[in-house]
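sorry for the late reply, my laptop died twice this morning and i had to redo everyting from scratch. anyway the thing you sent over, i finally got around to it. pasting the sequence first so we're on the same page, its 354 residues, then the predicted structure underneath. double check i copied it right bc i was rushing
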Amino acid sequence: MEFTKERISSSLLTEDNYVSTENMLQDFQGVTIAHNIPEGTNVMEYRQGDVLVSNIRPYLKKVWMADKDGGCSADVFVMRANKNICTGDFLCHIVANDRFIGYVMSGAKGVKMPRGDKEQMKGYATALPSLKEQQKVAHLLAIIDERITTQIRIIAQLKSLICLPNEQSPRLRIKGHTSQWQKVRLSDIVNRIVTRNKYNSSSRVLTIAAQYGLIDQQEFFHKQIASSDLSGYYLLKHGDFAYNKSYSGDYPWGAVKRLDNYPDGVLSTLYICFRPNDDVDSDFLCYYFESTKWYRGIMEISGEGARNHGLLNMSVEDYFATRLRIPIIEEQRDISKMLNTFSQKIKIEEELLD
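ok and here's the structure:
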């Protein structure tokens, strides 16, 4: 494998073949149409069969195997397989893998906007079967990839089971449920967490990663960025939620994630933390925050210009006063059960890829 260095004039590119970190999709889901194309300059060139990797925040898993020729921004690395020993398809499956992403993150530089190290990537070691076997393996993995993509699309469609605050009920209902959804404040269904890690009872410093949820900072960054004294941090337990007000192109209104992977952990007081009460199903709340249905409430309390040093500027009181629509608890559980079924299928198939 080599990193290509060829350049191409931006005048030869269109919205269909220009790639930047902005139009690469997360979770190895490819690319979409570009909205901005640079003018009067040369950019990196890629060819059909090359593997493109976004080098900004590698944990977002933006990888695409080019199905056409084109150009890309400097923040996108272009990898080309050595056809004598490796097929392009097999190279793509090596790179579009959590193991490779974890390796890249272990050498990433920067905290808020980590970037991979090209020289370190060149050192990634992996076993290579014969070219004939690579083709068979790549074909099998492509089938599994397609199944995962299908499940993800189904889940996206099923999120129509959740409605906006100004809607009486969602467009899609589970059979047997007909009651109108209730409009509530977030504070009606969750309790804010303000408990501090007073006695340093937990040493696990958490961070919110868009694709991994609440994750151990040491595991994610391969180092601890927080101070040694953690007594002033919020103490979270398994099942608690946290809102990260830091916004990005992929998460314009921040991200809300649940603590699923550990029994406890601590978070900076820059986060807004809360615990669901008995009026809401925790899994339903998870899927609600994975949708975009809650964006409108944040937009109303965080108007244009209300962004400060990468953080949305809002008060805790306003955040908990945002409104949402929820059904009766039985319908919440039925929605969660349906979505969990597809999520579990995706998890099993992703494990097959690993």
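Residues 7 and 294 are 42 Å apart (CA to CA).
thats about all i looked at so far, will dig more tmrw
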